[in-house]
Design brief:
With about 425 residues, the protein is α+β, with helices and mostly antiparallel strands. The chain is about 30% helix and about 25% strand. It starts with a strand and ends with a strand. The mean pLDDT is about 95.
């Protein structure tokens, strides 16, 4: 049983801040230094000042990015820049965009979800986390005692009964609208008691699969373990929940840019690749669209990648035998991973051939993760990286099947599009 409850959100006062596009921001982990500067300039009340304060060389224990976020948060509440909503409820959130000529609208809702260990099987992760990111989020949570950004959760509702109730709330006027990068974001209140009760009841026999926000979920869980006696309402964390059976759920691939830890020898590398893969050179001028078309044309059960070395040189490769990776896996790793493209990439191509173990924090510097194919191609062409692995997206059925078994994918195995905005609703601990 998953415990979800309504909550009284803390909302930006648009009479003071201006419209919602002025105070919202992308998730902290995709904000570059350049975007951070732009968000600071955009509006004095942008949520970036809470989720990702700037760092300075003179920072110390008493004055740092976390203490400054806390001070700003308290001041905004005092000045009524942030105001408590009138009554508890869920907050319906839609994101409408166009993908390959088709209009797509993903709908879900913000709720507070009781944290629990993964061993119960009710809340299922699908990726490994990094210690550094959790330390960062824990410092912010301790300083501010609030969830500024939602964790992205999935639930199964093939009949769409929850979606029907959410659509009723969307007939009213949204209280926040943000149109950015071709995505129209809208938020509505849902506070009808009968509807709230119905939705909560639907989760009595459901699981939640974490799509994005693993670091923040584990941070919230650990925070409550440490501080639950003093901060009782920290037992729940703010999540965005959406139906994984809806046609509007999109997963994009995350490609791997690699800088070899030793001088890179392309010929030697490809000789080793041929031990595990069928290899076909990419035709000159294949380009981004051609690479994507080749990857997507593969059979569903095939595991395929494209390797690009820069200057219009590359290969299309297909796994010969999935079971070839089994002797290469770490002890205790489940056999089920052999059917997963991203696992084959990390085990054979990165760890075995290139000697880059992405589970080792010291090796993470050699791999950069990018969704944008144009950027990946240009950074290899420039010589910044030795090569890039292009891949197909991990399928949602694969994520679900493995997560239900307690099997975690390599980090950055999935990219759920679009990203959720931060700042639309805040969950502040009251105790």
């Amino acid at each position: 049983m998953v415990d979800i409850v309504p909550f009284t959100g803390l909302l930006f006062n648009q009479e003071k801040t201006g419209p919602a596009d002025q105070f919202t921001a992308p998730p902290y982990d995709v904000i570059s230094p350049q975007l951070q500067d732009a968000l600071y300039e955009k509006n004095a009340f942008n949520v970036v000042r809470l989720i990702l304060e700037k760092q300075y060389p003179e920072d110390d224990e008493q004055n740092n990015r976390y203490t400054r976020s806390s001070a700003t948060f308290k001041q905004w509440i005092k000045d009524k820049v942030l105001v408590k909503d009138e009554k508890p409820g869920f907050y319906v959130y839609s994101q409408e965009y166009t993908y390959e000529g088709q209009s797509v609208c993903r709908v879900g809702f913000f709720a507070r979800v009781r944290t629990e260990g993964f061993s119960t099987g009710n809340i299922c992760p699908h990726e490994f986390t990094l210690a550094k990111a959790k330390q960062d989020r824990m410092k912010l949570l301790k300083a501010c005692r609030a969830n500024f950004s939602p964790i992205f959760g999935l639930f199964s509702d093939p009949s769409g009964e929850v979606d029907v109730r959410l659509s009723q709330a969307m007939k009213s006027t949204p209280f926040a609208v943000v149109e950015e990068n071709g995505i129209q974001n809208k938020v509505w209140r849902l506070d009808d008691e009968d509807t709230l009760g119905f939705i909560m009841e639907q989760f009595n026999d459901k699981k939640i699969f974490i799509a994005d926000g693993h670091h923040r979920y584990e941070t919230a869980l650990n925070y409550h373990k440490e501080h639950g006696d003093d901060v009782e309402d920290s037992a729940h964390v703010m999540m965005f929940l959406t139906n994984l059976d809806a046609q509007s759920l999109a997963i994009y691939p995350i490609h791997r840019l690699v800088k070899s830890p030793i001088p890179f020898d392309e010929t030697d590398f490809m000789n080793q690749v041929e031990n595990y893969f069928d290899v076909e050179p990419l035709a000159k001028g294949t380009g981004k669209d051609g690479i994507r078309k080749i990857l997507e044309s593969a059979d569903e059960d095939d595991i395929v990648f494209s390797i690009y070395f820069g200057q219009d040189r590359g290969y299309f490769i297909k796994v010969k035998e999935k079971a070839n990776m089994l002797p290469l896996q770490d002890a205790g790793e489940p056999e089920e991973l052999q059917v997963l493209g991203v696992a084959q990439l990390h085990t054979i191509l990165l760890k075995t051939i290139l000697k880059i173990d992405t589970k080792d924090p010291g090796s993470q510097q050699y791999v950069t993760y990018k969704v944008d194919m144009d950027e990946a191609l240009s950074r290899v062409d420039s010589g910044e990286f030795d090569l890039v692995f292009f891949m197909n997206a991990t399928r949602i059925d694969q994520v679900r099947n493995l997560a239900e078994k307690g099997i975690r994918l390599p980090q950055k195995a999935t990219f759920f599009y679009p990203k959720l905005l931060s700042g639309l609703v805040i969950n502040k601990f009251e105790s």
